[in-house]
Automatic annotation (TrEMBL):
Residues 9-59 form the Dynein heavy chain AAA 5 extension domain. Pfam families: AAA_7, AAA_lid_1, Dynein_AAA_lid. GO terms for cellular component: dynein complex. The lineage of its organism: Eukaryota, Metamonada, Preaxostyla, Oxymonadida, Streblomastigidae. Residues 355-444 form the Dynein heavy chain 3 AAA+ lid domain. This is Putative dynein heavy chain. GO terms for biological process: microtubule-based movement. Transmembrane segments: none annotated. PANTHER family: DYNEIN HEAVY CHAIN 6, AXONEMAL-LIKE (PTHR22878:SF68), DYNEIN HEAVY CHAIN 6, AXONEMAL-LIKE-RELATED (PTHR22878). GO terms for molecular function: dynein intermediate chain binding; dynein light intermediate chain binding. Residues 62-85 are annotated as: Disordered.
């Protein structure tokens, strides 16, 4: 954002500069944190901003914004005691941030009521904070779109996509991390297929795996980019090259723990080029940014060298929570059941909400009931499993959707295929049957015997 010339025009109030500073702070230091640390960062930053700096507020509040210091004091967060402990905790920070101008800027920051620092972006038209949630587009179901390509935007996907756009424009390499099934791959792919991005860039994907070699990676890079001169490769003139490296940390380390494809990437980014394997001359790489995605080490994923990760702007993709999951599956299932031609019976269309709630509940229940142990290490579930259940239901032949009872049976069948088939003994399978019955009862979708 700070690369944008618009912000350096004449009327650039200091309070807006402070907002941009805080926004940059949130999405640099804060963005790379995991789900447990983000609330702590939120508390830390709000505490830092609302420290009693001994200044009067010079804020640019509008009606929608409140002074977070007052608000925190009302609800006990950051109250007198908190401020005292903050003052101790942040002593080092306050020593650093002692200039009067800086203090004045900080006290001018206000956030919308009840918002976390990760919930907001600066609205460029009025320079006020705006919630990411207000930028989430309404999902429009497209019957022609294959299920695998469906991406329902949520607050987190909108935030990640917006940051990708900002960072790529400023030629910054990006690393998206997060546990498996958080949507890293589909969010980046969805972003790269935005028509505007497609027009302005040449992008391609390299999927790393345990067998990926440095030579293979180099061949893909040289093959997909244009040879502008004998010692210069890049995208076609006028376009920006975007290389999406998925599953970055999967290449198997060799005997001395190095991962050659990762070292090759590091050379591409750090030294901006690669060596010609035959002539041994240096080939410069121009106008190309790397977007990488990786999950935490474990299960075939390895630690990667910080000499590479330091070159990226890291964004932690948050876990998809219950409300986001409900939002995603509601959009898909409701869209599907209400867009069939000829239209499905009303009784079937009304099943959309209970089926979504039942899917989310069954997934959460499976995650908390069937925990991994050394003999059941594969008892791990993620969004991909819930998505497989929904996908199975949506892929049935149209005759299955005409009668509520059959649709519910189909849903139960898919639930068993995704979750029950993974269980290894009768005890767990019986427990799952009880859970499934409980879910059907809870959401009133249990088939009546005479239906
Ligand atoms: N916003 C979304 N809209 C629709 N489906 C989603 C969304 N987010 C995740 N999913 C579903 O979750 C599945 C997992 O997503 P994805 O493959 O992108 O995860 P990932 O973070 O790349 O996982 P991994 O670390 O294992 O590669 C997708 O196949 C998709 O069905
Ligand atoms: Mg992935």
């Amino acid at each position: 954002m700070l690369n944008n010339k618009k912000y350096y025009e004449d009327q650039y109030p200091a309070s807006l500069a402070a907002k941009h500073f805080v926004f940059a702070l949130i999405w640099t230091f804060g963005a790379s944190l995991d789900d447990q640390s983000k609330p702590r960062f939120n508390e830390f930053l709000i505490g830092l901003i609302t420290l009693d700096w001994g200044m009067t507020s010079g804020g640019d509040n509008d009606d929608n914004e409140i002074d977070i210091k007052k608000d925190n004091q009302q609800d006990g967060v950051g109250g007198k005691n908190k401020t005292t402990s903050n003052q101790t905790n942040y002593k080092a920070a306050s020593q650093f941030l002692t200039s009067e101008a800086f203090m004045q800027l900080l006290v001018s920051i206000t956030f919308p009521r009840g918002a976390s620092v990760f919930d907001v972006i600066i609205n460029e038209s009025n320079n006020q904070w705006e919630r990411w949630a207000s930028r989430v587009p309404v999902y429009k179901y497209d019957p022609q779109q294959p299920y695998e390509e469906i991406v329902v935007q949520t607050q987190d996907t909108v935030a990640t996509t917006t940051l990708l756009n900002m960072l790529i424009k400023s030629h910054t390499n990006i690393l998206i991390t997060g546990t498996t099934g958080t949507g890293k791959t589909i969010v980046v792919n969805d972003f790269l297929h935005i028509p505007d991005i497609q027009d302005k860039s040449l992008f391609f994907q390299i999927n790393f795996s345990a067998q990926t070699s440095a030579k293979g990676t180099q061949e893909v890079l040289e093959g997909r980019l244009t040879h502008r001169r004998s010692n210069l490769i890049g995208p076609p003139v006028g376009k920006q090259g975007i290389v999406f490296v998925d599953d970055l940390n999967t290449p198997t380390p060799e005997i001395y723990f190095a991962q050659p494809p990762i070292e090759l990437l590091r050379q591409c980014i750090d030294q901006k080029g690669i060596y010609d394997r035959k002539k041994l001359t240096f080939i410069h790489l121009t106008e190309t940014v790397f977007v990488a995605a990786c999950g935490p080490p474990g299960g075939g994923r390895h630690e990667i060298t910080q000499r590479l990760t330091r070159l990226f702007h890291t964004i932690g993709m948050p876990q998809v929570g219950t409300s986001a999951m409900t939002q995603i599956f509601s959009a898909i299932i409701t869209g599907f059941l209400t867009n069939q031609k000829p239209a499905l019976p009303q009784t079937v269309q009304e099943l959309a909400k209970p089926l979504v709630d039942a899917t989310v509940f069954l997934y959460n229940k499976a995650c908390t009931t069937f925990l991994p142990t050394p003999s059941k290490s594969h008892y791990t579930f993620n969004l991909r499993d819930a998505s497989s259940l929904v996908s199975g239901v949506l892929h049935a032949s149209p005759g299955c959707y005409q009668i509520p009872l059959i649709l519910v049976k189909l849903w139960s069948h898919e639930g068993c295929r995704v979750f029950r088939d993974r269980l290894i003994d009768d005890t767990d399978r019986n427990l799952f049957d009880c859970v499934l019955m409980g879910v059907l009862n809870k959401y009133y979708i249990r088939p009546e015997p005479d239906e």
